[in-house]
Amino acid sequence: MNPGLARLQAYPFERLRQLLAGATPPANLSNISLSIGEPRHEPPAFVLERLAASLHELGSYPATRGLPELRAAMAGALQRRFATSGLQLDPETMVLPVNGTREALFAFVQTVVNPRRAALVAMPNPGYQIYEGAALLAGAEPYFLNTTAAGGFVPDLDAVPAAVWRRCQLLFLCSPGNPTGKVLPLHYLRFALELADRYGFIIAADECYADLYLDETDPSPSLLQAAAQSGNCAFKRCVVFHSLSKRSSLPGLRSGLVAGDAQLIERFLLYRTYHGSAMPVPTQRASIAAWSDDRHVSANRHLYQQKFQQVLPILRSVLPLEMPDGAFYLWARVDGDDARFARALYEAAHLIVLPGSFMAREAHGENPGRGRVRISLVPDLPQCLEAAARLRQFLAT
Ligand SMILES: Cc1ncc(COP(=O)(O)O)c(C=O)c1O
What we know:
- By secondary structure, the protein is an alpha/beta fold.
- It has helices spanning 12-20, 45-53, 68-81, 101-112, 129-137, 162-167, 186-199, 223-229, 244-247, 262-275, 281-291, 295-315, 338-349, 381-396; strands at residues 32-33, 95-98, 120-125, 141-146, 168-174, 202-206, 238-243, 256-260, 329-333, 351-352, 354-355, 372-376.
- Helices cover 40% and strands 14% of the residues.
- The longest helix has 21 residues, at 295-315.
- The structure holds pyridoxal-5'-phosphate (PLP).
């Protein structure tokens, strides 16, 4: 057996299920789930139509590399979104389709980690649990970079000892961050790239929330922009992950992309060919439509902006909350034990939130998720407002 399997932790939602087992919520209140990060806005009709119109193409095997038109559409979307001088992605060598970023984040680690070199994979803590599981199953040790309010919710790269960087083979960054909503600024990304060059590691930037920034005048930047600005126009050591799940509210389509360093992409393609993770052709056709259009993305983003603008004033008098930079989460500080808080809230108000400590690991003497809950603003606006009103009442009594 792969020894990493024994080290995998229960998924946060399994722990949440156990936490809430046996609790009885008020029967007169409907359940509102604010725990999972599943977008629920209406998927764009033109994408679904393209999918339906392409179903006859299920009769042939898809190529792992994807259709040339898809790679062109993906490169085009990134170039429009992150327009920067020198940022030019060759669709032939620098972009690949993936079946959602989750599988790709996992598979990329299996591709690049050399477990015989006491490998470390560094990652934000709290963070998306796949980074940790992927590192363990690749035979690497996870190295947790705590993101705390005191540190402005950015992983403190300066605090990492040189001996750790020397063992580090891969650094995960996530911007906008899940669960913090923090956007990593360009100067930070450039510094991360300097470290990558100095110590020879790769950076995997999970940018799946990149289109859900909350200030229209301040779109979140990409690691690709930081690389281009530093003169690294071949994106050496860099890969970014983007997804239609959040961008286009299409989590069920299972469609995303990876882009960056052509050498890494070439190795990743080889891995994927053996792994057997080609995207069905109808999904590719639908994805071409989605990546080629930005209007629906802006409409989708506005819906989240609206929710934050209306929910925050309801909660501010009872919770210390700031508008995040992006994504669709509130990373709220609560008094006392976050798991106990989540259970009590469920029992009193029939709301489900995710305890922060379930999303983080004990590292460097603390669990940086402790004392926080993640509130996911994925239900529709009336439900988000209803949830905020119930939460306010719960906290006020
Ligand atoms: C930070 C982060 N990365 C990646 C994913 C995976 O998204 P998908 O596989 O739908 O592209 C998620 C999903 O919630 C996420 O929160």
